[in-house]
Design goal:
Largest sheet: 8 strands, antiparallel
Distance between the termini: 17 Å
Number of strands: 15
CATH class: Mainly Beta
Helix content: under 10%
Shape: globular
Radius of gyration: 15 Å
Number of helices: 1
């Protein structure tokens, strides 16, 4: 149980990462991914990387610069421009719906304008899911200058699009529906220099 704990990625740049294990029975037609990060990086870095053998950027949350997030589904991406952070924790949720191709992006409990992405696509179920690196091949192919350095917590993946109420609940760390990946019952393996520590503050 990682409640009130964080992964600290200590080095910059880094070869470290965390492997997450999710039980996916079938491909995804909808999903939501949420996480909270704390970093002073200004270079590009990967937050959440979900690769299949067919597509290395099947789901990717990537931050190319401090005022921009990129959300990939099936190798295509949309960009969400954000105010440059105040060097504080940032909570992001990104959701996607195959039927409409609607991509939602929420930052610190607030929605950004929705965008269109990969309508009719299906996300593969056999995946390598990593925190801290961006995969250029299944489970590998890292560019260490896209690595994450800092603190990550509250990582979730659902096989549905969350309602606005639940998006806000994720930001506030309130009760959430059962998830494929849930921070409070996370199955994970640390590879390299990543330390689990208590959160410094709420």
């Amino acid at each position: 149980d990682l409640y009130r704990k964080v992964f600290v990625f200590r080095k910059d740049p880094s070869d470290a990462y965390v492997v997450l294990r999710a039980q996916l029975e079938q491909p995804l037609h909808n999903f939501t991914v949420c996480l909270r990060s704390y970093t002073d990086l200004s270079r590009p870095h990967s937050l959440f990387s979900y690769a299949t053998k067919a597509q290395d950027n099947e789901i990717l949350l990537f931050k190319p610069k401090p005022e921009e997030y990129r959300f990939y589904v099936g190798g295509k991406f949309v960009t969400f421009r954000v105010p440059e952070g105040r060097r504080d924790w940032e909570h992001v949720c990104a959701s996607w719906e195959s039927a409409t191709g609607i991509a939602e992006f929420w930052l610190n409990g607030k929605p950004w304008p929705r965008k269109g992405l990969q309508r009719g696509y299906t996300v593969g179920a056999t995946a390598a899911i990593l925190l801290g690196q961006e995969q250029d091949s299944f489970g590998g192919g890292f560019d260490f200058y896209n690595s994450f350095s800092g603190e990550l917590t509250d990582v979730y993946l659902w096989d549905t699009g969350l309602s606005p109420d639940k998006m806000r609940a994720a930001f506030l760390s309130l009760r959430l529906p059962p998830a494929l990946l849930a921070w409070k019952s996370l199955s994970y393996e640390v590879k390299g220099d990543v330390v689990v520590k208590p959160r410094l503050r709420e």
